[in-house]
């Protein structure tokens, strides 16, 4: 739906064509947590989300809504249900990666010139104790047929957990702040330890220049060896 519009309409794209639906007489009801358990039980029966029949998900969520609002008799007023599927581990990794990019961009020129974060840091942070997961299993004839790991609280504990932890460490150890500094966060392959390294902008330029110089020197030596 358009954020700012003179008319109430819902726009969506299909096969490269924009379609608009009048929503002047539509009420959108956004709810969370209702039907989550039912959706998880459906999801563990399929390998991927794309395989799950949309109708099946809509049915279980609608049933959960009816049970939740039975006393209010509100469920019968809902014409269409759009399920928002529970997050799995890979989605938490993607959300943390997005938050890390935003962290870099939001404080550029204030706390650092650039904040460089290795790709594997997001996965590491997603496995900290502050991010909670739960395992759902499908049991058939007393045997576990399949299992999936879901984020217990969605993405709610991402900001208050690993992101807040990283922020506090950065703001504590980088004082006094240098808006020209290049900050790099990396993880040792063997020890799995996380390191935060800061260097001034000029130092970073010199390191890159030396690295390029070594590359050119190596190339010149290789050319000389080939010629001889």
UniProtKB/TrEMBL annotation:
Region annotation (Disordered) ranges: 204-228
Organism superkingdom: Eukaryota
One GO CC term on file: cytoplasm
Gene Ontology molecular-function annotations: ATP binding; ATP hydrolysis activity
UniProt protein name: Uncharacterized protein
């Amino acid at each position: 739906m358009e954020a700012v519009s003179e008319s109430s309409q819902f726009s969506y794209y299909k096969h490269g064509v924009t379609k608009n639906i009048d929503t002047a007489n539509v009420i959108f009801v956004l709810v969370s947590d209702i039907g989550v358990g039912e959706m998880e039980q459906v999801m563990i029966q399929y390998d991927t989300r794309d395989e799950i029949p949309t109708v099946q998900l809509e049915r279980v969520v609608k049933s959960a809504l009816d049970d939740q609002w039975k006393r209010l008799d509100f469920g019968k007023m809902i014409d269409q249900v759009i399920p928002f599927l529970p997050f799995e581990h890979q989605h938490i990794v993607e959300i943390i990666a997005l938050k890390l990019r935003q962290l870099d961009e939001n404080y550029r020129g204030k706390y650092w010139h650039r904040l460089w974060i290795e790709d594997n840091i997001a996965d590491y942070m997603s496995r900290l104790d502050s991010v909670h997961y739960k395992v759902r299993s499908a049991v058939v004839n007393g045997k576990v047929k399949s299992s999936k790991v879901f984020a217990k609280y969605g993405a709610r504990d991402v900001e208050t957990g690993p992101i807040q932890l990283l922020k506090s460490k950065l703001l504590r150890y980088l004082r006094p702040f240098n808006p020209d500094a290049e900050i790099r966060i990396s993880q040792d392959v063997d020890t799995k330890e996380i390191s935060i390294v800061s260097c001034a902008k000029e130092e970073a330029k010199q390191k890159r220049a030396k690295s390029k110089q070594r590359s050119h020197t190596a190339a010149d030596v290789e050319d000389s060896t080939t010629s001889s």
